Amino acid sequence: MSDLGKTAVAPSFSLRGLMTSLASPWSFVVVIPVVVALLDSNNFWPVVTFAFKAFASTAPLIAFAVFLIAYLKAAGAEAMVAEAFKGREVRMIFLAALFGGLAPFCSCEVIPFIAGLLALGAPLSAVMAFWLSSPLIDPPTLLITAGALGWEFAIGKAIAAIALGLFGGFAIRAIMQAGAFTSPLKQQSSCSSCGCGSDPFTGKAVWKFWNEQKRREAFKAELISNGLFLIKWLAFAYILEALLVTYVPAELIARLVGGEGILPIAIAALVGMPAYLNSYVAPPLLAGLMEQGMTGGAAMSFMVAGAVSSIPAMTAVWSLVRPPVFASYLCLGVTGAIASGILFQMIV
């Protein structure tokens, strides 16, 4: 009853909260068609129809991707990934590059995992191999890329992820043998707002997770959260692709990142670094760019460079290691992106 005597306080207006809500992909999904209807009503239905058909065509792959990532998280697949960081260094580099594409980590979760590996003495070369390959591909990204750009491109990106991990791992190994990076970690490296998590070398994957209530609950939570996450970003991506195809002249794209040679591929890598959104938005946007004249090599270079230099990926590296290691990460990523684009263009 004493609560009745308290004066109710009206919720205060938060400009930052309002701006965050307006910046949500859901807001853009609603606002963009409305703006098109007001400013160019003739293209309203073409834009909306294009985005809806593109989303519907990848819906089965999205559903499977959501199920797969929820299964991996509920089963505790991180324990299997940690096995890559045991044994001899060369073996670790190969396994880290391979498992980097299979790890069910979001950009936030990879920080405490990597922090634990480095703190427990895993060599920087193997960690760098994992760090470079992990942002490029994972099961959901592979399926979404295949849906938007075809399996040829998706498999090419997966191979590029592993190759970049190997390139970075062995490059760091050679640099360390020359006497550099003797103390790669920052003195006061925090584990981020996600928490430090448990020792990555402990635990065991439980593939029949449905026998444990806690894992069943984790599966349900991951299924819902990842489903909403992918639907949100892909709806936004397909709206952007529809705008791109409708309003950006094909000649402009072809002039900038079309044609043969190394220059368009290098330009795509440099443009991809600041312009990249995330691995779920990029494939539909690149599909639109390729329809407008972007070459496959330039698209691959854009995607690889953008994934390595995306804000979450760079934040993960910067939060844990010293600036020279961070600079090496970026240089290896951009160099590998250009090389991936050139090789993909030559082969495909």
What are the secondary-structure elements, in order, as H or E? HHHHHHHHHHHHHHHH
Oligomer: single chain
Number of helix segments?
Answer: 16
Sheet having the most strands: none
Counting structural domains, the number is: 1
- The radius of gyration over CA amounts to 22 Å
The total of beta strands comes to 0
Give a written overview of the molecule.
The chain has 348 residues and is an all-alpha fold. It has one domain. The protein is 70% helix and 0% strand. Helix 5 packs parallel to helix 7, helix 5 packs antiparallel against helix 9 (151-177) and helix 9 packs across helix 16. The longest helix has 35 residues, at 213-247. Mean pLDDT is 79; it is low at 1-13 and 188-197.
List the keywords.
348 residues; transmembrane helix; UPF0718; mainly alpha; 16 helices; membrane
Topology:
Elements: H1 15-22, H2 25-39, H3 44-75, H4 78-82, H5 89-100, H6 110-119, H7 124-133, H8 139-149, H9 151-177, H10 213-247, H11 250-257, H12 262-275, H13 282-291, H14 296-308, H15 311-318, H16 323-347
Main location: membrane
Family: Belongs to the UPF0718 family.
Protein name: Permease
Offer a concise description of the structure.
This protein is mainly α and 348 residues long.
